[in-house]
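Friendly challenge for the regulars: who can give me the structure tokens for this chain first? No prize, just bragging rights.
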Amino acid sequence: MSEFKDKLNHYLQITYFEEAVTMDDQLDIYAQRYRAYVRENTIEPNDKELFMDHYDKLSNCHAFGLWMGDNLMASIRYHIISPDTPFGPAMSAFPEIIRPILDRGETVIDPTRLVVARATTEKYPEMAYVTMRIAFMAAEHHKATYLLATVRKEHQSFYKRLFGFKTLGEPRAYPDLLKPISIMAAHMPSQAADVKRKYPVFSSSLTERQLLFA
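First reply, four minutes later:
Bragging rights claimed.
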């Protein structure tokens, strides 16, 4: 475990997160997504070789790239689903689970489209952990009650191991994907401290979060 933690901390030293606000950065992410999802037979191929959807254009959506120099190593997006912005992929697919949370005045962070480039995975197989860090920090920054994971069944073990995610809904049809997706969640108030103790790489300062999310 010590060697694993050292690797994650090393990755954090040689990479940086940046929100995709320019069209060029967004297209890089859409192309990276496309290659990964086609490779896994999760979407149908298309002539543009890009994978985006209308959720990318919602006001509560934020897409981040994980960069090493000029190289896009991985990417992820998340939606801030709250009583003020009650929309996003998880809300569309699992409304009966998300709506009661919003009715209590609470917020969830809904990360999706976590993609690690094939070359990155081969050289840095643990990079998916570092990529999830941005969603974890977003959940802290926005004081979210839950950090979600809408994932295929074969990916559930990763999220259980990483955050102690619990399955809230079994696989069902999900927007724009060919394979069914389940919903999992981590309760931030009770679980965040344990995650940071287990994986210190998920710790962050208030200053870092403000610089990323302000």
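Residues 80 and 109 are 5 Å apart (CA to CA). The mean pLDDT is 95. Your move, everyone else.
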